[in-house]
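Problem statement: downstream parser choked on a complex file, so we are re-checking the raw output for the ISC run. The parser issue turned out to be on our end (a line-ending mismatch), but while we're here, posting the original submission so the record is complete.
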Amino acid sequence: MTSPGTLPTATERLVVETQQVDDTRSLLTLVDPQRPLLWLRKGCGLAGIGEALRLEFSGPDRMREAAVVWRDIAAAATVEDPLRMPGTGLVAFGTFAFDDSSAQTSVLLVPQIILGRRDGTSWITRIRLDATASDAPDPLATAFGPTYRLTLTPGAESPAGFQAHVADAVDRILAGDLSKVVLSRDLIGHLPADADLRRIVSDLAVGYPDCWTFAVDGLLGSSPETLVSVQDGSVTARVLAGTASRGADAASDQDAAVNLATSAKDQDEHQFAVQSVLASLRPHTSHVLTSEIPFTLKLPNLWHLATDVEGTLTDNATSLDLIDALHPTAAVAGSPTPAAVALIAELEPFDRGRYAGPVGWVGADGDGEWAIALRCAQVDQDGTVTAYAGGGIVAESVPEKELAETRMKFRPIVDAFG
Ligand SMILES: C=C(O[C@H]1C=CC=C(C(=O)O)[C@@H]1O)C(=O)O
């Protein structure tokens, strides 16, 4: 159900102006320290300041409703955008809950100001409701606040509880109820008042430059997995499933990658995820290509099995329509999807919130970039931090190894807060 939020009326249409600028300031230093709004990869991306519009969604139709509402908002907006690049003009940042019945809201946020940088071009976009007299003031860079350290400790799911649930899941897979399920656990902590969250985002962006580093409505993280990116009729995705730890030296690191690439268990886990993405994209795309065999993706904390997917849009689906079609992939739910989602609800003793949901941005033409919210934490207004990490469970999964895998996956967030 869509909450009324501030839907534009005939007299409240968004007025959007983009201008190229010569701005070399760090995008990070410009955003709100307590509520940063950011989307970054390899030094490029979008920083949002202020809030022109906040749209909230929940329930099973949260993404479908967002897609419909966004079409209307974009159609009603007056946009001056001489650059016409991905991320220029009207943009909303978004984060969506994993589960249909999550208590966590899903949101699209349109900032008052967006600073963007891509392929050597920088711009500023100013957005206002046309009933509003003046633009928001130009953003000022501010120094980061004092340093702080936060220890994250087990939340609703203890390490022992997680291992027991992995064993339960293996039993259910062996009984033939399903083929794969992704189970996760949580860590929690409490931030000091006025903690500057840009410190966390900065650590993530510096430590994981090849990942999508994001901060949207308190959800902070650095995800290696592209759920979908849509640009001028081209659709791309990066599917990840199958994980190994990095070796301590060059030789053992290479062995770890080779073992991952040749592990039947990881290849199985991976194929479920690839097939789920292909099945969801098929009705909207043609000429879909994937790498012939999965490749090993090296991250600072681990190796993943990865498959890149490319296709051509055959309908007028927006990136919001596509996240609706794709979510939840077998990289974060399992296979078959309904049985996996039901088993997650049965075994995980917490609401995933926006963990493993889509996070990213959409433009006025519906193009956009969306990651799966992994390696992330939700920071609530009261300073409560909840981090999540999980792994794909198949028939051959071993509880101790799955627990170790979650430790590796927590590392970016645990290090950034610690
Ligand atoms: C569910 C997570 O990772 C997914 C993405 C990549 C590899 C995964 C795996 O090997 O299990 C998971 O499918 C997580 O990071 O919490």
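For whoever reads this later: The chain is about 25% helix and 35% strand.
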